[in-house]
């Protein structure tokens, strides 16, 4: 299992069970998921999580490619049209903000 997945799984366990992280809760978590039946469930969740993570990674590559295109076009505009370069800069900033989940 990946360290990132394990952190997510434990965090989700705490959230679902409405409990705070502590040594006692961590021991309980470890004892629950040391049982083969529960470990198999965790393994299935891990496979689903990996699949979703690969989709996220692919989308991130596409977003990075779009941002690079906009940035490259903006840099080319500086020598011919400051106004166009400024518009592309604003577009770049707005795209970045939108991708972070915020809107102006």
The helix fraction, in percent, is over 70%
Uncertain residue ranges: none
What oligomeric assembly is this protein in? single chain
* Coarse shape: elongated
User: Major sheet, described briefly?
Assistant: none
Q: How much is the radius of gyration in Å? A: 22 Å
Number of strands: 0
Listing every helix as H and every strand as E from the N terminus to the C terminus, the arrangement reads HHHH
Query: What class would the helix/strand composition place it in?
Result: mainly alpha
Distance between the termini: 39 Å
What is the arithmetic mean of pLDDT? 85
What percent strand? under 5%
Number of helices: 4
SSE layout:
Elements: H1 3-16, H2 23-32, H3 36-77, H4 82-99
Helix pairs in contact: 3-4
Structure description:
The protein is mostly helical. The chain is about 80% helix and about 0% strand. Helix 3 packs antiparallel against helix 4. The chain is elongated, with a radius of gyration of 22 Å. The mean pLDDT is about 85.
């Amino acid at each position: 299992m990946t360290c990132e997945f394990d952190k997510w799984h434990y965090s989700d366990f705490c959230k679902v069970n409405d409990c705070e992280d502590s040594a006692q809760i961590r021991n309980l978590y470890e004892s629950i998921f040391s049982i083969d039946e529960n470990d198999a469930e965790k393994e299935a969740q891990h496979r689903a999580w990996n699949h979703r993570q690969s989709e996220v990674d692919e989308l991130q590559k596409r977003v990075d490619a779009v941002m690079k295109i906009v940035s490259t076009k903006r840099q080319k505009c500086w020598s011919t049209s400051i106004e166009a370069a400024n518009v592309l800069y604003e577009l770049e900033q707005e795209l970045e903000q939108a991708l972070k989940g915020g809107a102006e």
